[in-house]
Batch of 3 targets.
Target 1
Amino acid sequence: MKVRINYAICNSCGLCREVCPEWAITQKYLEPRHLYEVHAEKCTGCGECLEYCPAPGAFIQYDGQLS
Ligand code: SF4
Ligand code: SF4
C-alpha cells in the first residue's frame, strides 16, 4: 500500500523524509509551514515512514491508484 499525507494531522516534523529509503518524500517549499509530500511514483509502500511518524493518522494508506 502506498501512502499519502493527511495534512489535517501532519505536524510537518520531517521525520518521514529522513527515514524513507526511496527518497519518495520531499518538502513542498512553497508551503508556508514546509509541509511534506509523498511522490507516488517513488513510494514502494515499504511502511518505514509509518513506523516513525509521531502523529497517528498522518499517513493514509491506499492501493496506489490516484483517484
Ligand atoms: S511507504 Fe516507504 S517508500 Fe513509501 S513514503 Fe513511506 S518510507 Fe517512503
Ligand atoms: S513524520 Fe508524520 S507528522 Fe512528520 S512530516 Fe511526516 S507525515 Fe508529517
Note: The chain has a mean pLDDT of 94.
Target 2
Amino acid sequence: MIAQQTPTQATAPGPRGLPIIGNVLEMGGNNTLERYMLMRQKYGDLVGVKLGPMHGFIVFNPEDVYYVLVKNQKNYIKGIGYDSFRLLVGNGLVTSDGALWRQQRRLMQPPFTPASIGQYADMMVDVTKTLLDGWQALADRGGTFEMDAAMRQLTMSIIGRAMFSIDLSAEMTEVGDALEEAFGFIPTRTNSVVPLALPLPAHRRFKDNLRIINAFVDERIAEGRHNPDQNNLLGLLLRARDEETGAMMDAQQLRDEVITLFFAGFETTARSLTWGWYMLTRHLDAQQKIQAEVDAVLGARLPAIDDLFALNYTRQVVDETLRLYPPTALLARQNSEADTIGGYTIPAGSLIILVPYFVHRHPSVWEDAERFDPDRFAAGANEARARSAYIPFAAGPRVCLGNNFALLEMVYAMAMTAQRYTITAATGEEIAHEFAGTIRPVKPLIVKIENRRKAETA
Ligand code: HEM
C-alpha cells in the first residue's frame, strides 16, 4: 500500500519541466539513456523530476542503488513503474509485489538454484551444437549472416526446450517477433496519457501481438495439462502447490508466469549474446583468448557442466559485455514510506529509477568506463568494487531468477562457437544502441564466419 505523499524537504536538483505535467515529456523514448546521462552530468548523482503530481528520482550512485535494492529493500516495491510492463506479462514474477511475489518466488526458485542449473547443461549444449552445425556450410565458404537473428533463434530454442520440451524453431519467428515488438512498445506507454483503448495503429498492433503471444502460451499450457508430469518448467508450474495452503496456481497466474519466464528467458539473453559478438568482432584479441582457453579446456570435445568453472576468460567476456550493455538498462521501484537517499528526502510513493547502464560506467568505480576490458573481471579484481556497482541481474531479493541459467547459456554459446569458428565483422561499422525496454542495436549485426583452421592459416 502506498502511503500519502509528504512534501519534499531537501529538493533534489533536476530539470524544471512544464506546468502540471512536469518532466513527463523528457522521460520516455528511445534515447532515454542519453538524456539521463546528460541530466546526471548537469545535476549530479540523484536527479529529481516531476511526473505530473508524482515525484520521480533518478539514482546513479552505486551506494544509493545498494540502499534501494538491498539495504532498505523492504521499503521499495516494483509498484507503478511496472504498470506498462504488466500489459504484457500481467502479474508474473517480474512485476508482482508483496505476498503474491513471495509465494511465487518460493515456488519458482528450485529449478534455478546454482545446484539445479546443471540439469539444463546437456540440453543447452545440444541446442547450441545444432545451431553451429547449421552454420557449417556458410563457414566453408566464408559467408555472412545476421548474428542478432541467430542469437534469438538460439535463446528461443533453449527456453522452448527448458519450458515446454519442444523445439520452437518453427514457431519462433512469429512469437519471437510478437514478443519483441510488444516489449518495444512498452516504454512508449510509460507516462503516456493516451488511453490504450484508442484505436491507433500502434495500439492495434500491440493488441495483435498480445493475441499471438497469449494464443501460443495457452496452447502450450493446454498441451501441458494433458501431461502434467513432464519434466520441464511448465510441468513444475502446473504441479506447484503453495506450501501453506496447498493451493495450485489459478489459470491467469499460470499464464502470467509462463509468459514472464518465456519472455525473460529469451529477449535479455539474445541481446546480451549479440552485444557480446559485437564486442568480439571489434576486439579480435579477446576472441583469440577465448579460442585459446577453449582449446586448453575442451580441445575438440563438447562442454560439460564442470567446464563452466574453467572457462574463466569466456565468463569475463560475458561479464564485461553485461557491464557495457546491461539489457535491463533501467530498473524502477516505488517507496512505500518517505525515505532519504543521497541526502535528499524522497516522499512516499515516488518513482525511483535506477540506471544500471550508468552505474556500470560510474566514474567513482570504473576507470575509462567505455573501454571493453574483460580483465576488469579477472579473479581478485572485483573485491574492492563498491556494492551494487555491477548489477546486470539487479541485486537483493528481486535479483534475476534466471541469472545462473543465462550465464551458463551465454558461456556455452561463446565457447562452443569459438571452438569451431572465427567470427569477424562483415562491415566494421559502429552499431549504436537504443533503449526499447532492453538495449537494442539500431541495425542488424552482420558477421562473417570462417572455420577456425582456415581462418588461422589465411
Ligand atoms: C542476460 C540475461 C538476463 C539478464 C541481464 C536479466 C536481468 C534481470 C534483471 C535486472 C532483473 C530484475 C528486474 C527488476 O528488478 O526490476 C531480472 C529479473 C528476473 N529475471 Fe532475469 N535476466 C536475464 C535472464 C533471465 C532468464 C534466462 C530468466 C529465466 C529463464 C530470467 C527470469 C527472470 C525473472 C523471473 C525475474 C524476476 C525475479 C523476481 O523479481 O523475483 N532472467 N532479470
Note: The chain has 18 helices and twelve strands.
Target 3
Amino acid sequence: MGWLTVTLASIGHAADTPTLGSAIAAPISSDGVQRVTVILDSYSYSPNHLVVEIGKPVELIPTSVTTITPHNVIIKDSFGSLSVEQDVGAVRTVMARFVPTQPGLFPFFCDKRLWPMSSHRGKWMEGILEVT
Ligand SMILES: [Cu+2]
C-alpha cells in the first residue's frame, strides 16, 4: 500500500471521465441492417455514442487504425440480451452482429491491457450504445 498504490492509481486515471461525442444514429441499409463503422485507436472509439433501434439487426464494423496495439469491443448487459466480444487486431476490420432486444444505455469498452498498466477501459476506451 502507500506509494505503490497511489502511483498505479494515478497511472490508471489519466483522465477524469470519458468524453462522449455526438450521438450517431446507425443508418439502416436497404437490407434492413443497421450498419455502422467504428474506428478504434489507442485509446478511443469513434463515434463513441451509437444509437440503434430495438429489434433490428445491427452490424458493427470495428476498424482499427493502430499499428501494433490490439483492441476489442465488449458489449454486455445484465439481461443477457447483448453478448458481443469481438477482438480487433491492429489495422484489422472485423464485424460483430447482434439484435438489441432491450432499450437502454449500455457501455461498450475494451478490456485489453498490458500488465501492469490498467485496462484500456481504464484509459477511458469506452463508449455508449443507446438502444431506443
Ligand atoms: Cu484496447
Note: Residues 3-11 form the longest helix (9 residues).
